[in-house]
Design a protein that fits this description.
Elements (H helix, E strand, L loop, with lengths): L1 H6 L2 H5 L1 H5 L11 H30 L3 H25 L4 H8 L11 H9 L15 H12 L3 H11 L6 H4 L11 H12 L5 H32 L11 H7 L6 H5 L5
Length: 266
Amino acid sequence: MMSQRREISYSGYLQLDCILQAQQPLSAAHDEMLFIIQHQTSELWMKLAIHELSATCRLIAADDLQPAFKTLSRVSRILEQLNSAWDVLRTMTPSEYTEFRSLLGQSSGFQSWQYRAIEFLVGNKNAAMIDIHAENQAVADWLEAVRVAPGIYDLTIQLLHRRGLDIDRVVLKRDVSVPHSVSDSVMNAWLSVYREPTRFWELYELAEKLVDFEDYFRRWRFNHVTTVERIIGFKRGTGGTSGVSYLRKMLDVVLFPELWQVRTQL
C-alpha cells in the first residue's frame, strides 16, 4: 500500500497530461484559449451535475431524502460555478470572437449531450433533441434511456403519493418520457405541504431544494442569453439555431410548475 501511494502523483491521479493537452486552438487568436477552456470546464461541471442529479433520483425513489438534500444543494452550487464562468467569457468582445468564430464551423453548445441529459433529468424532455446526436449511436442511446426514465420531478410526485398525499392516478401512470403538465392534484398536494410544513417537513425541505435548483438553473440560462447577446448580438448561432431568440424561448420553460404557482395560493 505504501509503495502504491508513493507511485501515485498529483498530476497522475488527476490525469493532468491529458487535461492540459486538450486545448488545441485552431487560430492564433488570443481569446480562443479562453473560449475553449470555458466550455471544457463547463462540461466537467455538467458531468458532476449529472452524477449528482442521478444520485438524487435514486435517493428520492428510495425515500432517502436527507442525502438527497445534500446532492441537490451540491448541484445548486455547481450551477453557481457555471454562472460565474459566463462572467469570465463576457470579458471577450465581439471583435475578439470574430477572429476565430468562422473556424468553429457548425459546432455549437447546442450539441452538448451533457446539457441535454441535464434537461432530461429535470423534466424538460424533447425526443427531437436526440436527433442532433444521431451520428453517435452510443450517445443517442444513452440520452434516450435518460429521457424515458422518470425525471427528478416525476419521482418527487410519486413520493408525495407514498407519503399519503392524494395524487391523481392519471398523473402517477403518465408517460414520463414527455414533460410534466400542471396537475390540480399535485398543486393541492404542495398546498398541503406548505400549509403544514412541520407535519410534512421532509417534503417541505425537498420542495425548497427543488425551487433553489430551478432558481439557479434559470440564472444559468439567463446568463447564457445575455453573454451570447453581448458577444454576437442577434446573429444566427454557429450550430444553425436562431441564436439569442432561441435561447430566450428557453427562459420560459418551467421545470416544476406547481412549486412556483403554489406561492400565489398561500
